[in-house]
Amino acid sequence: MKLSARNQLKGKVVEIQEGVVSAKVVIEICEGNRISSTISMDALRDLGIKVGDEATAVIKATSVMVMVP
């Protein structure tokens, strides 16, 4: 996958807090350093994200997106 955003932080999904409409995904990028993103429940299902998965936090301006292989 190619993406124009250059701020990409790879890590492991350590927590998912599911809500009715959105989910908070927490990625540990190195021991003790975590970053979180709020994504839609549809995106969570479409990406198939689970705790323990490798994922990449993609930062563009003030938004944080999540990318998986």
Could you explain how this protein is built, in words?
Strands 3-2-1-4-5 form a five-stranded antiparallel β-sheet. The protein has one domain (7-67): OB fold (Dihydrolipoamide Acetyltransferase, E2P), CATH 2.40.50.100. The termini are close together. Strand 1 and strand 2 form a beta hairpin. The longest helix has 7 residues, at 41-47. By secondary structure, the chain is mostly beta strands. The chain is built from one helix and five strands. The protein has one helix at residues 41-47; strands spanning 7-18, 22-30, 33-40, 54-60, 63-67. Keywords: Molybdenum. Residues 2-68 form the Mop domain. InterPro entries: Mo/tungstate-bd_C_term_dom (IPR008995), Mop_domain (IPR004606), Transp-assoc_OB_typ1 (IPR005116).
The fold-level CATH name is: OB fold (Dihydrolipoamide Acetyltransferase, E2P)
If classified by CATH, what would the architecture be? Beta Barrel
Shape: globular
How would you write the strand order of the largest sheet?
Answer: 3-2-1-4-5
Distance between the termini: 8 Å
What low-confidence regions span 5 or more consecutive residues with pLDDT below 50?
A: none
* SSE-based structural type: mainly beta
Order of helices and strands, N to C?
EEEHEE
What oligomeric state is this? single chain
